[in-house]
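example protein:
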Amino acid sequence: MISLVMVVLCSTLIALILKHNDSKSGSAIVLLFANYVVATSFSTFFFVTDKSASYSAETLGLGAILGLMFLLSFFAFAKAVEFAGAALAQVSSRISVVIPIGLSIIVFFEFPGLWGYIGILLAFLTIFLFYRSFGNGSNQKVDKKAYLWLIGLFTGIGVNDFAFKLFEQWRPPSEKEFFLTCIFGFALIFSALYVFISKTRIDSGSIKRGLMLGVPNIFSSFFLINALRELPAYIVFPIANISIIIFTSLGAFIIWKEKQNTFGRLAIITGIVAILLLSMN
């Protein structure tokens, strides 16, 4: 359970740093590039210094694909925000939790009990209330392009999450450090190529925030693999997603004085209940 707590803490830090970068009008791709520099450095250090660490071509291939998926999911998120707005983009990324949960049930036969099913339903209710808390976002008109980006975001985030579950089941624990090195290493290469080709302006603020982001990013992935070895996916992913909503909202209130409306407060309440039920399960 400690690993899951660490996933929640690291994921919340990631969300708050991303929000801070947005409030400063920082470059998202430069932020990601700097973040991948730090994450790759940490994961490589862990891999090199761990005498029991091993590697394989299979893990290299999975890591390379996931590194590319990480970057593509970011672009899908950016486009979803552009065409559909922040509310729909956020809810699409959060509701993607249905993919790793569904695939884990189908592929690995991880069936939740009664409290687990109720907790999962409350998790989706929390995400819906979170979406409604954005105000009039539910009434906005969305064109067809927006739906394509939202579907792409939903699929990308969901597949990325399931890839960690797949690694946990498919590869030995000794390859964890190598797996993370491959993910962040390839993501670094792809993001660097984009920055170079697009001639993106590199600002110091985004670089600094990206270097900060890299630390919780690598450890969130590190502890996520551990959590998936200790607990079933239908507990890990909903709790992680709901906790991001709750603690980011609390952090935004403390740091930026952002107040929640009725839907936001209800989302926090149902989210806490969902976490308790999933923990009981």
About this structure: The CA atoms of residues 250 and 258 lie 9 Å apart. The radius of gyration is 18 Å.
